[in-house]
């Protein structure tokens, strides 16, 4: 049975469970369930604190886990990303009151509040800066106002939390992060893990592509296919009307309206897009 660590709370928990559900796995019915067996799919899910997942996975008793890349780096655990999942995208940044700090070189002797001590300590050591780090569990943006630190290092997505606290980022982003499937560094390849990854990849593709069908005149086919090259190559079928063909191709969902406009301009008609529910590439 494949043993998988899943975030039990926080920003990662809902989207991770939604993705697993979309991939056909059983989901827990209530948040007090800590372990869930899915006998049909031969998988056992362990619902763990997101910060602990890389540590469990690196210890070797769990095959893989879903966590944030920033949490993985922060933990210092011997585990690596095997599939980025495209949600919980964020950057990790320093921030302070405007005009008080302009770059990492100004941090010497200052106190930095963060929930991610591992990332901050590593970054300061690499930059050769000697600063103090104070650990807070959350709501780090308030630490400056309340005199606990002069600088914070935290997750930034929209920047709203920083703006609301009257803070401003400075320096380059310390790292970018998104949710990912992780595995113990150097773990042997495993057919069950590969099958799990194919299912999640199927969800990622189904979310980001649509299926496009249209009819076009044979003499316009090459130009039409250039607009809709698909992942491998479009399917072309003859129409009963001579001189016309039907084309079927996967198109990135974000481009679909523009591609439909361009195909129409080219003379294509009966242009349809449909959602993809699942796929194996
Ligand atoms: N506002 C956000 N936007 C995008 N990703 C976020 C956001 N906040 C946290 N994350 C990401 O979620 C992960 C942190 O998850 P975790 O559950 O530990 O924290 P949380 O969502 O802040 O929950 P908690 O309430 O327990 O602090 C990290 O990978 C982080 O980059
Ligand atoms: O740039 P933004 O879009 O504002 O998002 C970033 C904020 O979201 C997270 O906080 P969360 O709500 O999880 O609270 P926490 O600080 O208690 O973890 C993170 O810690 C930042 O504070
Ligand atoms: Mg948080």
UniProtKB/TrEMBL annotation:
Please list the residue ranges annotated as the ATP phosphoribosyltransferase catalytic domain.
49-202
Q: Where in the cell is it found?
A: Cytoplasm
Pfam families in the record, alphabetically? HisG, HisG_C
Tell me what reaction this enzyme catalyses: 1-(5-phospho-beta-D-ribosyl)-ATP + diphosphate = 5-phospho-alpha-D-ribose 1-diphosphate + ATP
InterPro entries from the UniProt entry: ATP-PRT_HisG_long, ATP_PRibTrfase_cat, ATP_PRibTrfase_HisG, HisG_C, N-reg_PII-like_a/b, N-reg_PII/ATP_PRibTrfase_C
Q: What EC numbers are recorded for this enzyme?
A: 2.4.2.17
- Write down the superkingdom of origin: Bacteria
Pathway entry: Amino-acid biosynthesis; L-histidine biosynthesis; L-histidine from 5-phospho-alpha-D-ribose 1-diphosphate: step 1/9
Keywords assigned: Amino-acid biosynthesis, ATP-binding, Cytoplasm, Glycosyltransferase, Histidine biosynthesis, Magnesium, Metal-binding, Nucleotide-binding, Transferase
The UniProt note on how this protein's activity is regulated states:
Feedback inhibited by histidine.
Per UniProt, residues of the Histidine biosynthesis HisG C-terminal domain are 206-277
Q: Which cofactor does it need?
A: Mg(2+)
**NCBIfam families the UniProt entry points to:** hisG (TIGR00070), HisG_C-term (TIGR03455)
Function description: Catalyzes the condensation of ATP and 5-phosphoribose 1-diphosphate to form N'-(5'-phosphoribosyl)-ATP (PR-ATP). Has a crucial role in the pathway because the rate of histidine biosynthesis seems to be controlled primarily by regulation of HisG enzymatic activity.
Q: Which HAMAP family match?
A: HisG_Long
Similarity comment: family membership: Belongs to the ATP phosphoribosyltransferase family. Long subfamily.
Protein name per Swiss-Prot or TrEMBL: ATP phosphoribosyltransferase
Q: Which organism is it from?
A: Streptomyces xanthochromogenes
Please state the gene responsible for encoding this protein: hisG
């Amino acid at each position: 049975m494949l043993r998988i660590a899943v975030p039990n709370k926080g920003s990662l928990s809902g989207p991770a469970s939604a993705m697993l559900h979309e991939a056909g796995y059983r989901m827990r019915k209530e948040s007090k369930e800590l372990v869930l067996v899915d006998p049909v799919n031969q998988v056992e899910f362990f619902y763990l604190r997101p910060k602990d997942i890389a540590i469990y996975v690196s210890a070797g008793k769990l095959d893989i886990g879903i966590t944030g890349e920033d949490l993985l780096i922060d933990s210092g655990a011997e585990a690596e990303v095997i599939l980025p999942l495209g949600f919980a995208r964020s950057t990790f940044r320093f921030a302070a009151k405007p005009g008080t700090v302009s770059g990492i070189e100004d941090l010497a002797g200052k106190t930095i509040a963060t929930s991610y001590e591992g990332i901050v300590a590593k970054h300061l050591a690499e930059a050769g800066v000697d600063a103090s780090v104070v650990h807070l569990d959350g709501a780090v943006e308030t630490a400056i106002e309340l005199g606990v630190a002069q600088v914070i290092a935290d997750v930034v997505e929209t920047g709203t939390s920083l703006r609301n606290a009257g803070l401003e980022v400075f320096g380059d982003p310390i790292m970018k992060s998104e949710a990912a499937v992780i595995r113990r560094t150097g773990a042997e390849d495993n057919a069950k893990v590969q099958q799990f990854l194919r299912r999640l990849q199927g969800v990622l593709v189904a979310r980001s592509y649509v299926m496009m069908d249209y009819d076009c005149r044979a003499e316009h086919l090459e130009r039409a296919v250039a607009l809709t090259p698909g992942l491998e190559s479009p399917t072309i079928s003859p129409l009963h009307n001579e001189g016309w063909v039907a084309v079927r191709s996967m198109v990135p969902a974000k481009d679909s309206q523009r591609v439909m406009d361009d195909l129409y301009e080219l003379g294509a008609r009966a242009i349809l897009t449909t959602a993809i529910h699942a796929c194996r590439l």
